[in-house]
Design goal:
121 residues, four-stranded antiparallel β-sheet, 11 strands
């Protein structure tokens, strides 16, 4: 099982960026999916999460600017980042709770490798 992120890069303040993360491998179901970020010198923090039913939750710092969505048919979660700020700079990680195992079904949380987002002033 792996999560692969894409879409990071360099963007000017006020611009937009769209991140994608796709789960692949052997699993039976996906529950919650989310995006975290890690800025230099800071701890990893939740940016946004979304349930399998589509209910979203956002950090106060991104409310009104970022939108999380998912395509269950494609096992993919997206993060649309609008009106980005310099303080949005960091490595963005996606995660997902996946149902794995054949003889021993269990929910495991998996993480992507991270994608760099840099916002210039």
């Amino acid at each position: 099982v792996q999560l692969v992120e894409s879409g990071g890069g360099l963007v000017q303040a006020g611009g937009s960026l769209r991140l994608s993360c796709t789960a692949s491998g052997s699993f039976f179901s996906i529950n919650d999916m989310g995006w975290y970020r890690e800025a230099p010198g800071k701890q990893r923090e939740l940016v946004a999460s979304i349930t399998s039913g589509g209910s979203a939750n956002y950090a106060d710092s991104v409310k009104g600017r970022f939108t999380i969505s998912r395509d269950n048919a494609k096992n993919t979660v997206y993060l649309q980042m609008n009106s980005v700020k310099v303080e949005d700079t960091g490595v963005y990680y996606c995660n997902a709770d996946l149902l794995v195992g054949r003889s021993n079904l269990r929910w495991n949380r998996y993480w992507g490798q991270g994608t760099q987002v840099t916002v210039s002033s």
